[in-house]
């Protein structure tokens, strides 16, 4: 637990020290929210959720890339792979919440008659999915340009795809839109249930995929035999 | 080189020549008093530190070299190909506790690859590495986090072996001091000079007191004083029973090491020989 919390803490410290990045992480969802503000509030909230998801995914992608050279050293220093990816994920989830909280306040002040619990749940789902999603892209595509382009493609597809289409369920942030629809349009509870289940399943799948990718990269190699000191 | 730097280099040379620590303290204090009272450039008064140290070592006598201990690292038959190019062919190295091995060779001959394979960070196409003890690795580049402070690096790496924050900070600062660096300043790693960042890199490698230390050209960007401190520390670690492998292209340091592995392609497969 000590090792896991230390990695989480250092991930947070690194991100907090990059003030410009933090500012941009806040600016991105704000821009998404404001650009649709003159229209129906539901569109603004959905765009805001995608903005939060994109911001956290991008932070996760770059954090994973930056840690790539350091992780082998930490592995040799006594860390197990799960300390490294879970610790980093924990730090990113905390940062995601820090980003989401002011926007929840903004929606609460700027709108009327929404199911605010639903808005909060949708934000939680966006953050929960975004951290492992960005980390997975960072773990699979070591070059940041490729990773950023893939992230851009996924988020754009997510934004343009009709959520009612069957294929939309395969996109990572479909849950946010479902829960947002429940929160904004006061639809029946099946939207909320579907959304939460989707978020839990996608987060679990992504965490497993990150675990697989990081564990494979930092695995103990078969050619090394470890003997006790004689 | 001012008087302090000369004295430091002189002490390191005496240590290298295996003069007893109490004799080193005594001789260095005497030389410092002489310089303070008489003034003058130490190079003019005493000459180069290594030559004066050799004269002193001959006159006061030296400690016997510790006998090398058990084998801590044994690499055999290491072969590595990148595509159709064979970088390493049947390379091997055996290092015992209390030995320093140098891996030398031209650029691109596989020195860093060999070290990464020994560290278990890369897989060979053939061959095996046997380790008896805890291993640490200092990469040529990277290995630090741009936005973390030196103390935070110490805490992060120290936590890997269950060190408390204060223990890790204290150990890190003490090791950094031996390299002539006061690491307590809250400066993110990205704002450190190349040489200081490399000292951080090196400090992190020795923080957890490994039995086997693999160093990939760790002195890049070091000034002369830091370079002397670096070798001084390596010799101390060797005397403390560590097995050290250092990749180097500075052949003038080979007299300080116990083993040399030359990976130059002209030497088929790399051939370990006594240094």
Description:
The complex is a heterodimer of chains A (230) and B (275). Chain A has 230 residues and is mostly helical. In chain B, the strands form 2 sheets. A 6-stranded mixed sheet of chain B has the order 5-6-7-3-8-9, with helices on both faces. A 3-stranded antiparallel sheet of chain B has the order 2-1-4, with helices on one face. Chain B is globular, with a radius of gyration of 20 Å. The C terminus of chain B is likely disordered. The chains are: A mainly alpha (230), B alpha/beta (275). The interface between A and B is large, with 32 and 42 residues. Strand 1 of chain A pairs parallel with strand 4 of chain B.
Span between N and C termini of chain B? 29 Å
How does the major sheet of chain B shape up? 6 strands, mixed
The CATH homologous superfamily of the largest domain in chain B is termed P-loop containing nucleotide triphosphate hydrolases
CATH architectural category of the largest domain in chain B: 3-Layer(aba) Sandwich
Q: Span between N and C termini of chain A? A: 31 Å
Task: State mean pLDDT of chain A (0 to 100 scale).
Answer: 91
Strand content of chain A: under 5%
> How large a portion of the residues of chain B is in β-strands, by DSSP E?
15-25%
The helix content of chain B, as a percent range, equals 40-55%
Note the overall shape of chain B. Answer: globular
* Count of individual helical segments of chain B: 9
Largest interface: A-B, 32 and 42 residues
How big is the Rg of chain B?
A: 20 Å
Assembly category: heterodimer
Radius of gyration over C-alpha positions of chain A, nearest whole angstrom: 19 Å
């Amino acid at each position: 637990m000590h090792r896991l919390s230390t990695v989480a803490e250092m991930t947070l410290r690194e991100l907090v020290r990059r003030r410009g990045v933090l500012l941009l992480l806040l600016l991105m969802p704000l821009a998404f929210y404001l650009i649709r503000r003159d229209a129906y509030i539901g569109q603004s909230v959905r765009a805001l959720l995608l903005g939060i998801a994109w911001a956290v995914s991008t932070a996760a992608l770059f954090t994973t890339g930056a840690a790539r050279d350091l992780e082998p050293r930490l592995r040799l220093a006594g860390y197990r792979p799960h300390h490294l990816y879970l610790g980093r994920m924990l730090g990113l989830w905390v940062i995601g919440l820090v980003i989401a909280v002011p926007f929840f306040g903004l929606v609460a002040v700027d709108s009327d008659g929404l199911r605010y619990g639903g808005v909060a749940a949708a934000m939680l789902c966006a953050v929960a999915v975004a951290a492992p999603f960005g980390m997975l892209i960072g773990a699979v595509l070591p070059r940041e340009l490729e990773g950023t382009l893939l992230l851009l493609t996924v988020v754009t597809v997510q934004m343009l795809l009709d959520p009612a289409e069957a294929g939309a369920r395969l996109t990572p942030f479909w849950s946010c839109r479902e829960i947002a629809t429940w929160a904004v349009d006061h639809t029946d509870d099946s939207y909320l249930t579907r959304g939460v289940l989707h978020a839990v399943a996608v987060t679990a799948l992504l965490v497993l995929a990150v675990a697989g990718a990081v564990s494979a990269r930092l695995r103990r190699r078969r050619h090394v035999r470890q003997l006790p000191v004689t | 080189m001012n008087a302090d730097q000369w004295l430091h280099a002189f002490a390191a040379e005496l240590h290298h020549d295996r003069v007893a620590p109490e004799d080193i303290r005594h001789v260095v204090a005497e030389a410092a008093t002489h310089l303070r009272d008489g003034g003058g450039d130490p190079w003019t008064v005493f000459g180069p530190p290594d030559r004066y140290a050799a004269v002193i070592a001959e006159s006061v006598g030296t400690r016997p070299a510790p006998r090398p201990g058990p084998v801590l690292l044994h690499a055999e038959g290491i072969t590595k190909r990148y595509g159709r190019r064979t970088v390493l062919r049947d390379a091997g190295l055996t290092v015992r506790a209390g030995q320093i091995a140098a891996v030398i060779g031209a650029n691109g001959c596989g020195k860093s690859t060999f070290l990464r394979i020994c560290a278990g960070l890369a897989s060979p196409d053939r061959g095996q590495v046997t380790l008896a003890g805890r291993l640490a690795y200092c990469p040529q580049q990277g290995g630090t986090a741009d936005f973390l402070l030196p103390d935070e690096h110490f805490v992060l790496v120290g936590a890997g072996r269950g060190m408390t924050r204060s223990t890790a900070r204290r150990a890190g600062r003490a090791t950094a001091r031996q390299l002539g660096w006061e690491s307590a300043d809250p400066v993110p790693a990205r704002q450190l000079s190349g040489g200081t960042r490399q000292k951080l890199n090196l400090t992190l490698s020795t923080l957890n007191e490994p039995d086997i230390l693999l160093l990939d050209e760790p002195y890049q960007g070091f000034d002369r004083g830091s370079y002397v401190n670096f070798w001084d520390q390596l010799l101390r670690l060797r005397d403390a029973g560590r097995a050290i492998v250092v990749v180097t292209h500075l052949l003038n340091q080979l007299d300080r090491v116990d083993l040399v592995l030359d990976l130059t392609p002209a030497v088929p497969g790399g051939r370990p020989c006594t240094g």
